[in-house]
Amino acid sequence: MRCAQRGCRFRHPSNSLKHPDLRKATNRLPPQASYRHPNRTNLIFDEIPISTAFLFPGQGAQTVGMARELTASFPAAKALFDQAADILGYDLLALCTHGPAERLNATDVSQPAIFVTSLAALKQLKATQPDALQGVTATAGLSLGEYTALAFAGSLSFADGLRVVQARGRAMQAAAEATPSAMASLLGAERADVEALVAEHRGTGTLEVANLLCPGNTVVSGTTPEIEAICRAAEAKGFRPIRLAVAGAFHTSLMQPADEQLAAALQAVTLTAPRIPVWSNVDAQPHTDPAEIQALLVRQVLSPVRWEETMRGLLASGMTRFYEIGPGRVLAGLLKRINRKLDIQNVTA
């Protein structure tokens, strides 16, 4: 083995010590010896304890067939879907496992489906890898996923969370149907590029930045003619626009009717202080005050999702390990665009 300096050669101590007593002492050392503090079994050489964040996906992560294997092999997951059927009034598991896709992709179904599927995956993680929950000091979710994060953190009960998510999905679906609108991801474009395009192509309709996901991936929402115009302009500049398979322009002012209905739904449930901070999509900050959390949830459907800022905030706060819990691997991919060396594990369903 050579060191960086030319001509320098590293020798193992057992080869370089000439005195026989020293050689014997060296050879008695256990292989790969390390110091472990007797009261801190997870630390080696004063290593900083691992801080973990749990992340939960949002709408768009759903696929026909999700939760099929999980509910077949893990009774607690099946029981969660049975409870959901009683609350929702229909067989959510059947839609998750068998579709049809057009019904599962509808906002009023996909949001409860992802919420329940993610929490079912979380139940399995708790049962099979209980150590994974040690060191979890923060949580966040993308749009809808913020409600799953709140349920995990104990701020919302499963039943209350599902009722609010059902109301949210119905309200957003209705708002989308009221005005022809769409969303598109502009790949390769940085935030400044997207904001310039939005200012240029807003026209007489609505066009707003909706999701700030990661470097080179910003989503815009708006009325259909404006989305079509910005996609053409983005492609002409060398960016890659991708229309999203959603019902309408979420996280814009077009969701004002949904915002009002969501406020009423949140008033009907009880939010308590979460066990750990829950990071908000609206301000990319951690929160534990129930009143603040409720106000931010109402604003969320009208506001851009500041996901990249949230992830950078978690990293700056000392997070060293992440779990994406729920269907798909979207969040892991976004996080890798920020730092591809990060430790992120997927718990899929």
Radius of gyration: 24 Å
What integer is the average pLDDT? Answer: 88
CATH architecture of the largest domain: 3-Layer(aba) Sandwich
Largest sheet features: 6 strands, mixed
Distance between the termini: 46 Å
Helix content: 40-55%
Q: How many strands? A: 11
Major sheet strand order: 8-7-2-1-10-11
Taking pLDDT < 50 over at least 5 consecutive residues as the criterion, the unreliable ranges are 1-47
Number of domains: 2
Query: Count the helices. How many?
Result: 15
* CATH topology heading of the largest domain: Malonyl-Coenzyme A Acyl Carrier Protein, domain 2
Strand coverage percent: 15-25%
The CATH homology group name of the largest domain: Malonyl-Coenzyme A Acyl Carrier Protein, domain 2
Structure characterization notes:
The chain has 349 residues and is of the alpha/beta class. It has 2 domains: 52-177 and 252-339, Malonyl-Coenzyme A Acyl Carrier Protein, domain 2, CATH 3.40.366.10; 180-243, Malonyl-CoA ACP transacylase, ACP-binding (Alpha-Beta Plaits, 2-Layer Sandwich). The protein contains 15 helices and 11 strands. The chain has a 6-stranded mixed beta sheet with strand order 8-7-2-1-10-11, with helices on both faces. Strands 6-3-5-4-9 form a 5-stranded mixed beta sheet. Strand 7 and strand 8 form a beta hairpin. The longest helix has 22 residues, at 107-128.
